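User: I'm putting together a small comparison set for a docking exercise, and I want a reference complex before I start. The sequence is below, and the ligand is beta-D-glucopyranose spirohydantoin. Could you produce the 3D structure with the ligand included, as structure tokens?
Assistant: Of course. I'll restate your input first, then give the structure tokens for the complex.
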Amino acid sequence: KKTAAAAAAAEPVQIEDDRTGLSVETLKRAFADNLFYIQGKNADIATLNDYYMALAYTVRDRLLHRWLGTIKAQLKPKVKVVYYLSAEFLMGPHLGNNLINLGIYDQVRQAIQESGLNLDELIAQEEEPGLGNGGLGRLAACYLDSLAALEIPAIGYGLRYEFGIFDQEIRDGWQVEITDKWLRYGNPWEIARPEATVEVKLGGHTEAFVDGAGRYRVRWIPGRTIVGVPYDTPVLGFKNNTANTLRLWKAEAPESFDFQAFNLGDYYGAVNAKMYSENISKVLYPNDEPMQGRELRLEQQFFFVSCSLQDIIRRHLYVGGKLENLDKNAAIQLNDTHPSIGIAELMRLLVDEHNVDWDTAWQITQDTFAYTNHTLLPEALERWPLSLFGSLLPRHLEIIFEINRRFLQEVSAKFPGDTGRLARLSLIQEGPEKFVRMAHLASAGSHAINGVAALHSELLKRDVLRDFYELSPEKFSNKTNGVTPRRWIMLSNPELAFLISESIGDGWIKNLGELRELERFANDKEFQSRWRQIKLNNKTNLTEYIRKRTGLVVDPHSLFDIQVKRIHEYKRQHLNVLYIITLYNRLKQNPELEITPRTFIFGGKAAPGYFMAKLIIKLINSVAAVVNSDPDVRGRLKVVFLPDYNVTFGQRVYPAAELSEQISTAGKEASGTGNMKFSMNGALTIGTLDGANVEIREEAGEENFFLFGLTTEEVYALKARGYNPWDYYNGNPALRQVIDQLASGVFSPGEAHLFEPLVDHLIHRDEYLLLADYQSYVECQDRVGEAYRDQEHWTRMSILNSARMGKFSSDRAIREYCEDIWGAVAVDVALEEYVQATA
Ligand code: GLS
């Protein structure tokens, strides 16, 4: 006979655990508990941030059983793990996203409400981890989200910058940079793992020696050593058990004090060494595309790559793997060339430290690495002066010379006597100053090379990596970028998500292609009016935000025309401004003119050292100042520059947009990803045939896309013929008027010459062909204004845009990477046992 106690023991425990329970009651209790025991506060003295932290810990508790379960499931001999190496991860705030992925948004909202607080306010309290500049870093974040959603074993490796991308303030129309102290109040989402610290060597020299087996070997005697401490952040899959890891390395000194210096009384000298080491992960370089040839930047790249590769090898050996089979357990993706020193570092680790012979090591390296190129801009292609490179990484330079020697031998065999080709392909750029070409190192050392949109991948093959393509065409493929619908629709645009799910079910969240089913509602009056109402609500929210941030009052019924992205001449924010001035002039000349009322909204940061980009920000603000205060155009024209564009702000912007500005010079934008977020949320695009715009238009249908401007071919041809912007200036009175106004100080009262550098560049050089595209852009913008007057038709186009954006889910992109490049498959995760027994 069973005793009562034995019977009870056989039953699963019914009482909800405070760390895992999901009922509103338990959530409230856990929240109060964390406020008291973790934050050390009670309600009398708790700040909003204390409440945010208490909630963050409540949520973190509820994801730990997945995280530990995932680590256990993935650290197995036969599992292939994707290692995504990236100098940037622009994750955005975690709290809201984790609530969505855990599927506990509604319970938590109620629990917080019943605790007398507001969930939105707590979510808004989170300092976003701005560990990236723009599209490249944000892409890495979307890819981690999709890897987890698809249950693919993955680790993102990067740097734990103490200061992320600067906060932007606008003073007197100019950008001012403020240090981003994102760690100031602590980071509840990360867990330090000091026991997994690794050492990284720098500087010094090398020595040759013959080992016991009579083999020629090289030893690297470093000038200094640094340690990398990993900080792990969970990355949850959408409503599944997978929680992958983002592992970011912090640089520290091996010993906090140099005791010898300390004993000699040199206290400051001793502390100095520590600060010097910690410098490496201090700050993110705030340049989006052009490279910064600074030694510290190379140190950062090498530091996080070396830490990560040592970690990867350690994991591989831990599960009993053989180094010869590294590629069976590991796919290492290089997110641009920033981590490409990894090719030489893996060779060094294998050959010097693990005694693998060169040929085997090279095979392992090539089979393991793959490289994504993210830009065609020549000034962004990374190359390091040989002298700098050799003094920081003497052993790697030798290794690169040896890779190059063998590589050029192969080239010679395939193209005998073609010395021009050898020079073009060499990993070393010759000349008065020699350079290491990082894109060449990445291409030679990888088995796969891809661009990030169809057009971009074609241009890579044709121009930037042409010789590599001719040498190894089989390495090349395209992987058009994508963005995660969890953050960029569900979290940012909950009302739209609700309407979509109500209409077609919620399968779209995991399978964005299902949005196609919305097509049948495109002409449905009732649906259209709800669609419009949601857009209006989102616009009204943004209006309120604009008022709070800038004091400007804008009309939510005007057309919201938005350009948010990094400020760069090739992205042509100033072309947008040329149109605004054109409209302004028309209204001044003809006060009765009927136009579609518009609000032009800009957002974006300029690299602190990029003079022209900063002048463009000043230009936008100067034009805004004139236009917004002119009673003649009131109610018809408004210009807003919203400071400090970041992920959080993006989440407010995309849902409120009606027109998405994607107006880069054809052939310059590798892909763009903002373009995708806009259309998913129902904005129409005005754009050139550049980057992924081409594919967005293809999907949406050309009748639902506002196309203008020269094509890539036409840009090439025009430049080859000899482009003279002066002709366009002279031949177009409206354009000439705008340029003359800028030159004469109409928009810079008291500072007539302020915009001279911009004007000069435009009429004399105009590298990005603004003047050539001006007329086409103006006409297209006029068509937009016309089209907006027919709200029914506009709404139809808007619905069709959303309905047809399925292709641009990062889930689709990650599936392609898995199948074509990584050979990675989903792995089932069981929740860690502690929870199975109690849940
Ligand atoms: C970028 C490109 O400029 C973007 O077009 C692209 O969408 C993004 C992600 O692939 O990468 N390259 C870069 O250096 N910064 C970017 O945003």
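The chain has two domains: 81-93+128-168+177-479, 528-804. Residues 708 and 777 are 6 Å apart (CA to CA).
User: Thanks, that's exactly what I needed.
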